[in-house]
Amino acid sequence: MVTEAAQRVLYVDDEPTLVFLITRALEKLGISSQGFASAEDALAAFKREPQAFTLVLTDFTMPGGMSGVELAQAVLAIRPDAAVVIATGCIDSAEERRAQSVGVRKVIRKPAKVAEMAQLVSGLLRELV
């Protein structure tokens, strides 16, 4: 079991402001995090330290680069036991099934408030790890 102090979240969203706010909110809850506004940059960080992350939480749709599902596939190719969760504002059932078929543990709906997202991540860490 991973202790709370050892938990580290890799958070990916194409909105830099949201990345900043979510990672700050997680830190306030005592959860170490590293955030990226680019799936490619997040993947590079994961490749450098694949065992360093307890949870990878990525947006589903990220224009101009890898999607959340593509990032999940790449992460899971490196570390098949990684806990990968996709957060989205909108997803249809076929896309959700595709995400789960590549190994995504859970697809969640993005809450409206940053504090709610931080609490949701805290709950995911308890549930998935």
Summarize the structure.
This protein is 45% helix and 19% strand.
Q: Strands of the biggest beta sheet: in what spatial order?
A: 2-1-3-4-5
- CATH architecture annotation: 3-Layer(aba) Sandwich
Topology as a string of helices (H) and strands (E):
EHEHEHEHEH
Question: Under CATH, the topology is which?
Answer: Rossmann fold
Global structural class: alpha/beta
Q: Give the count of structural domains.
A: 1
| Strand portion | 15-25%
Query: How much helix, percentage-wise, in residues?
Result: 40-55%
CA radius of gyration is 13 Å
Largest sheet: 5 strands, parallel
| Tally of strands | 5
Give the rounded overall mean pLDDT: 87
Low-confidence stretches: 1-5
Shape annotation: globular
Describe this structure in words.
- The radius of gyration is 13 Å and the shape is globular.
- With about 130 residues, the chain is of the alpha/beta class.
- It has one domain (about 5-129): Response regulator (Rossmann fold), CATH 3.40.50.2300.
- The protein is built from five helices and five strands; from the N terminus they run βαβαβαβαβα.
- The chain has helices at about 15-30, 40-50, 70-80, 95-100, 115-129, and strands spanning about 10, 30-35, 55-60, 85-90, 105-110.
- Helix content is about 45%, strand content about 20%.
- Helix 1 (about 15-30) crosses helix 5 (about 115-129) and helix 2 (about 40-50) runs parallel beside helix 3.
- A five-stranded parallel beta sheet has the order 2-1-3-4-5, sandwiched between helices.
